[in-house]
Design the sequence.
């Protein structure tokens, strides 16, 4: 069995961003040479997420609105965690959106359903962040 590992780095300009990382994951799969196996993609920060969904701007806005209702950023003093930092909402948003995805690899391709794409979701950005890609198989 072969194994491939790569870290993808992102310069996050805003506090919250959703980035379609599917092309970068496909590039990793090509580099790996693996044709059958599994691809793990996980966020390496406790305030960020990796998830699969549709790449549609209205849906992305819906995520933002929904997440803010569930874990609003303000007021900062509503969270006990915020005595040290002001990012408790980002921790909660990450928990809701998930840490990682695993995608089957079939015939050298990511085995997606219709419209599925891989996203990196950042909820406490304005700095450099990373994602781990681990591919195993034959």
Sequence:
């Amino acid at each position: 069995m072969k194994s491939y590992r790569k870290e993808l780095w992102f310069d996050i300009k805003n506090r919250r961003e959703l980035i379609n990382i599917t092309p970068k994951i496909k590039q990793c799969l090509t580099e790996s040479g693996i044709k059958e196996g599994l691809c793990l993609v996980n966020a390496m920060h406790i305030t960020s997420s990796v998830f699969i969904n549709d790449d549609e701007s209205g849906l992305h806005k819906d995520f933002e609105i929904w997440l803010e209702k569930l874990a609003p950023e303000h007021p900062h003093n509503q969270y006990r965690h915020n005595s040290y930092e002001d990012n408790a909402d980002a921790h909660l948003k990450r928990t809701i959106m998930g840490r990682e995805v695993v995608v089957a690899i079939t015939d050298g391709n990511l085995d997606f359903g219709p419209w599925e794409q891989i996203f990196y979701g950042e909820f406490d950005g304005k700095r450099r962040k990373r994602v781990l890609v681990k591919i195993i198989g034959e």
